[in-house]
Amino acid sequence: GPLTLYLLLPVRPSPHLQVVGVTLRSLIQSVDEILPSLHRLRRADQQMRLAQQNSITSVKEESQRQMLTAAHTLALDSKNLLDAVDQDRVRANFAEPRPDSPGPEGPEE
Predict the structure, then answer these.
(1) Residue 105: is its pLDDT beyond 60?
(2) 95-102 long-range contacts, Cβ below 8 Å, gap at least 24?
(3) Rounded distance, CA 26 to CA 33, Å?
(4) Domain spans, the chain
């Protein structure tokens, strides 16, 4: 019938449709060429974020170590200062020596 004849005739798309088709094919080809680069870029971004997180963690851990070292030094210096003040008070007869601390003469041997 007439429908069969219509399907067998070559169809020529309009020039606008041809331009759209060529443009779409070109765009698809461009996307296919760019995709591997985008994937590599995404992987690099993830690796940089991970490195940044690890860096922050490392800096944080180093900072905590330094703070603990400073706190330990401060505690020891404070103890030594208090011991010196206690010994001076004993020497000046303002206080009695503590049984657990060395006397003004120094540690007993």
Answers:
(1) no
(2) none
(3) 11
(4) 15-94
The span from the CA of 70 to the CA of 7, in Å, is 88
pTM of the model: 0.43
Q: Whats the size of the chain, residue-wise?
A: 109
Mean pLDDT in residue range 30-53? 85
What percent of the chain stands above pLDDT 70? 80
CA distances from 19 to 10, 24, 26, 49, 63 (A): 19, 8, 10, 43, 63
Tokens 């006397």 -> residue: 103
Confidence of residue 62 (pLDDT cuts 50, 70, 90): confident
Per-residue 3-state assignment (H helix, E strand, C coil) for the chain? CHHHHHHHCCCCCCHHHHHHHHHHHHHHHHHHHHHHHHHHHHHHHHHHHHHHHHHHHHHHHHHHHHHHHHHHHHHHHHHHHHHHHHHHHHHCCCCCCCCCCCECCECCC
